[in-house]
What we know:
The chain has helices at 2-29, 35-115, 257-264; strands at 122-130, 138-141, 154-157, 160-168, 173-177, 185-189, 196-201, 209-212, 225-228, 232-233, 236-240, 248-252, 267-271, 280-284. The chain is elongated and about 130 Å long. The relative contact order is 0.12. The strands form three sheets. The protein has a six-stranded antiparallel beta barrel with strand order 1-2-5-4-3-14. Strand 6 and strand 7 (196-201) form a beta hairpin. By secondary structure, the protein is an alpha+beta fold. It is built from three helices and 14 strands. The chain folds into two domains: 31-115; 118-284, Beta Barrel (Thrombin, subunit H).
Amino acid sequence: MHDKTIRRRRAVLVLLVAVSLILLTDYFGESPSSPLHQIQRGIVEVLSPVQDGASKVLSPVRDVAGWFSSMVHAKSEVTRLRAENESLTKQVAQANYDWSHYKQDQDLLGLDSANGLKKYDPLAANVISRNPLAWYQTLEVDKGSDDGVKQYDPVVGGGGLVGDVYRVGATYSIVNLLTSPSFSVGAQVENEAGDQGELGPKVGDQGALLLSYLPSDAEVATGQEVVTSGFKDSSDPRVQSFAPGGIPIGTVSNENTQNTVQVNGQVDVQPYADLTHLDVVQILTNPHATS
């Protein structure tokens, strides 16, 4: 019984193939006006309106589907672009940070070379925090007594002196900046006479410096350099400035310098170092070395 069913199916398949071949042969062999061509045209004419109608009915569906597909793609693209933008922003920030460190390192190397600071055993230190209530007064660095740092060691940054060590921990130090109310250092103008005075912050002008106690006849001009004087008391060698002489501090910035000196013995000084953007400093751990 099973074999008969299989033979019957095979016979039907052969018959259908034969009929298809006959129809195809007749179709391609007949003229366009033949019955088969007419039947084809009739079927097309009957189904064409149905196809057009279906196309019009399905068009909004296709549009909605396309809109959802576009939205999904757009959201995916936005997510990708946001992630890429965040990554690039971090890279730019890191590059700027690295460049700032590199530039300050180069400035310190130039300062060491130009002013012979190597003999004072400079120790590089990174700024790790600032007091938000005293931004222009102190900062914290990552070197302390374990590294040979002592209280009152001079601290230099890109351009020149930035302050001294105020407090020392085992692994950190607090630096008192030039602009701190409690800071002062002996300084001199690089003019012919080398006129000396005391440099400290200018009261009421945050970030500015004032060189005071200059001789009334001092010939000081705008733009002249101001450096540490390395003050020493000839009667008592133990009394001396915490900073060695010759470390750059800044330049005289008064417009009417001579009048200011003659009246009150003071001149304004613009510091070389950018005290608000320090990332790297050097602590002179042997400030009184002689060679």
